[in-house]
């Protein structure tokens, strides 16, 4: 059964790729099966009429309107020359189907159907025999007309099915183009964030090193080495992250995944260490052990938000600022908060110049994430991210005390609401 289906599918694909050969084969078989009997039924005239009726089927796909007119003329000639129906009249049904299935103009399709119904009624009158000739004419004509309508309906369904398939293919191609465009835009935003953060750390370190070297008498080569080591480490990390983003762009199987390197709890800690090395004190509460168990997209969203917020603190909060990072769980949601006690929101870029947080909001939409930014309660600036539905409903966790996937309370500090 499977083998026959497979062979039928191969034959269907072969003929679809070669429609002219299919029509030639159909015409030859139709003439052999339905045309030759015309000679036995009506002599040479019947064979001639059958041949004239069937031969144009070779061109039925390329010139359906011309073949329709030819078929109508051939049928009119048959009514005049042959007093009986011929098997070759099935060719007219093929023409009606072809026009309904391949002609886009509704006027031409309705004309074909009208000609078919008219021919059926005329044939009923021509071919009916006594007694009760009128009744026989109506029965023959109406029966043939109903068959013609059904054939036209089948052609309409086939044409509509082809149109639907084309629209589906076009929609799929459009979806693929939009998905690829979205991946590239996300990758560009990710690379921008990586480069912006890394250059901020490098600039802060270089400025601090240059300032200390010029103003501090006790400046030593070891201090310069520490600054250069931080700069080199930051650059190497940024290079590895950019390579990870580019590598994911070249992997088709990652089309539904957000571009970026795999992020874990240790990566957040390394980010904090790099910011501390740049001179910004960071007080960390989290992320707890369950952070590595949440989906990769959630971990990446938290990492992006923390990186962008700490970068902004480095840029705008001032030298004496301190940042506080908290990653915790609220019910089935993950919340990450970065708050500083620096100079406050007046020093942040005015609207239209800073794109980091706006870009984060756009990328968080696919996760239903909520990003809240604004002045901190006392002083400074606050960035808070909430990602709902991360853990799914679990009544045992409604108390606010987070637990790892094995069901034991997480012992890490800041693991939940206190």
Automatic annotation (TrEMBL):
Stretches the record annotates as Disordered: 330-358, 390-418
Entry's EC annotation: 2.7.13.3
Ranges annotated as biased composition (Basic and acidic residues): 330-344
Protein name: histidine kinase
CDD domains: HATPase_UhpB-NarQ-NarX-like (cd16917)
Main enzyme class: transferase
PANTHER family recorded: NITRATE/NITRITE SENSOR PROTEIN NARX-RELATED (PTHR24421), NITRATE_NITRITE SENSOR PROTEIN NARQ (PTHR24421:SF10)
Organism: Actinoplanes awajinensis subsp. mycoplanecinus
Keywords (A to Z) from UniProt: ATP-binding, Kinase, Membrane, Nucleotide-binding, Phosphoprotein, Transferase, Transmembrane, Transmembrane helix, Two-component regulatory system
All copies of domain Histidine kinase/HSP90-like ATPase, residue ranges: 300-388
Domain annotation Signal transduction histidine kinase subgroup 3 dimerisation and phosphoacceptor: ranges: 188-252
Annotated DUF7134 domain residues: 12-160
Any one GO molecular function term: protein dimerization activity
GO cellular component terms, semicolon-separated: membrane
Superkingdom, taxonomy of origin: Bacteria
């Amino acid at each position: 059964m499977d083998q026959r289906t497979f062979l039928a599918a191969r034959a269907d694909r072969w003929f679809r790729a070669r429609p002219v050969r299919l029509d030639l084969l159909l015409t030859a078989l139709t003439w052999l099966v339905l045309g030759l009997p015309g000679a036995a039924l009506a002599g040479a005239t019947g064979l001639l009429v059958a041949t004239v009726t069937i031969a144009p089927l070779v061109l039925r796909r390329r010139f359906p309107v011309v073949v329709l007119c030819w078929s109508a003329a051939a049928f009119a000639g048959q009514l005049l020359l042959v007093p009986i129906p011929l098997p070759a009249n099935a060719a007219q049904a093929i023409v009606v189907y072809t026009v309904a299935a391949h002609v886009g103009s509704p006027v031409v399709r309705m004309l074909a159907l009208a000609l078919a119904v008219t021919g059926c009624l005329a044939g009923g009158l021509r071919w009916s025999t006594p007694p009760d000739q009128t009744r026989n004419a109506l029965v023959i004509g109406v029966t043939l007309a109903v068959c013609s309508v059904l054939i036209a309906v089948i052609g309409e369904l086939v044409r509509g099915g082809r149109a639907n398939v084309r629209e589906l293919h076009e929609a799929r191609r459009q979806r693929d183009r939009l998905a690829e465009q979205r991946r590239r835009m996300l990758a560009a935003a990710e690379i921008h964030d990586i480069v912006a953060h890394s250059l901020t750390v490098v600039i802060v370190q270089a400025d601090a090193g240059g300032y200390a070297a010029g103003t501090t008498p006790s400046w030593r080569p070891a201090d310069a080495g520490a600054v250069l080591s931080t700069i080199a480490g930051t650059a190497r990390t940024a290079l590895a992250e950019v390579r990870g983003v580019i590598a994911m762009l070249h992997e088709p199987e990652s089309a539904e995944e957000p571009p970026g390197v795999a992020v874990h709890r240790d990566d957040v800690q390394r980010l904090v260490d790099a910011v501390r090395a740049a001179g910004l004190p960071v007080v960390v509460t989290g992320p707890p052990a369950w952070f590595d168990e949440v989906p990769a997209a959630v971990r990446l969203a938290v990492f992006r938000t923390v990186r962008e917020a700490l970068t902004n603190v480095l840029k705008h909060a001032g030298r004496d600022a301190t940042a506080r990072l908290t990653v915790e769980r609220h019910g089935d949601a993950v919340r990450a908060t970065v708050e500083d006690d620096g100079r406050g929101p007046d020093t942040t870029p005015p609207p239209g110049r800073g794109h980091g947080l706006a870009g984060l909001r756009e990328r968080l939409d696919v996760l239903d994430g909520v990003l809240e930014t604004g002045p901190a309660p006392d002083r400074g600036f606050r960035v808070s991210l909430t990602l709902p539905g991360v853990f799914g409903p679990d009544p045992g966790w409604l108390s606010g005390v987070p637990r790892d996937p094995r069901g034991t309370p997480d012992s890490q500090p800041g693991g939940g609401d206190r």
